């Protein structure tokens, strides 16, 4: 007992477990090997980091050179653009189409690409056709319209690669009416942008909203959303539009926004 | 001798004009042709660059940001169109466009609870969590650019800047007035709640700002405090920021 106790005390005081670097109870040769392993890994990490840094600074240098070349092209494109907007006839339709495509590639914002000249650019016209085909059924399911945000997510999720930009979607949308596609872009005064089935125009929707309101006596955006099968945002837009047409009155309080049929108008008409 | 007049002179003038127009057209076509040539050369160089450095762009947020700034400096928006060659060849477009989709989905999923307002940092955390481990880091700059692009779609995605370089992501339409922004700043500094008197305004002014925030479902009212009414902002709750879902 005594012996065990003194042995224990001795071992405790030596605190073997605190000593580092002695994983193997072997020779100093093993110790060296162990250290070389750790140091080796560290060196490798540092080398990788340096390689990455080199790669990035090389990339940066290459990029700077590329940007110089791009800058020249931007300047040239500006000259051409000025000529086009200044006068008609000096540049052919074909050349304009070609130029639009060039601007698109470069990423230069220009009235010529925004489709205010001629018939808009070909890429977005083609995109418009694809989108109309792809989004018609979903729009129908969603009550006849999709917000542009919703459309954007659906399209890009479906594509997976080679995604389109929000501006691409907007530019394509703007060509839909001209191309007589089944979906049309509606830009509301509030700034909300939708793709709506051509067959649904604003007034038909307003009429059906008015009828719902008359049936119910009172509607909030949430209630209309549930009834009509559309999002709360769109339901609110419908009620607001109806209000501008004189078909509804609002009651605005801290409880929220509630709409009522416009009795003033109806009763005046009944007289 | 009298100056030439009459039909002959007019016709000669017209011929000269036409020749002049034709020459000008030739010069312009020359320019478009020249631009085509430069673009072709550039495309090849960009392709080469992409082969070497495409991964650097995906991996390194600082590099992405520098790239964006360089583009802006020369008047080019690499994210304007998926058909731009920056997007096509370097894949920058796909990176941001896809990020934008994820931002929309994350904000809409959280909207019932947050009312459509979320601190940018929280958005970043949610996206990082959803993406899973091993994904390259998402920078604030990346998010701001992606959200900036969403504005074009018109359904109210925008960034509200608060003092101290803090940002809120708004995903419902409606402008926050200056007063409402101040209320939010105050509330954020105090753990997500505020009372009317803490604002230090006239009662009418405080009421207007606070009532609007409640009506827009960004604030909750607590009338059971035993003292003054407190207004709470779920979108700013610190606890929510660390939670899931």
From TrEMBL, chain A:
One of its GO terms (molecular function) is phosphatidylinositol-3-phosphate binding. Keywords: Cytoplasm, Endosome, Protein transport, Transport. Component of the ESCRT-II complex (endosomal sorting complex required for transport II), which is required for multivesicular body (MVB) formation and sorting of endosomal cargo proteins into MVBs. GO terms for cellular component: ESCRT II complex; late endosome membrane. One of its GO terms (biological process) is protein transport to vacuole involved in ubiquitin-dependent protein catabolic process via the multivesicular body sorting pathway. It comes from the Eukaryota. Its main location: cytoplasm. InterPro entries: Snf8/Vps36, Vps36, WH-like_DNA-bd_sf, WH_DNA-bd_sf. Gene3D superfamilies: 6.10.140.260, Winged helix-like DNA-binding domain superfamily/Winged helix DNA-binding domain. Component of the endosomal sorting complex required for transport II (ESCRT-II). This is Vacuolar protein-sorting-associated protein 36. The keyword Cytoplasm applies. The lineage of its organism: Eukaryota, Metazoa, Ecdysozoa, Arthropoda, Crustacea. It is found in: Cytoplasm; Endosome. It comes from Amphibalanus amphitrite. Belongs to the VPS36 family.
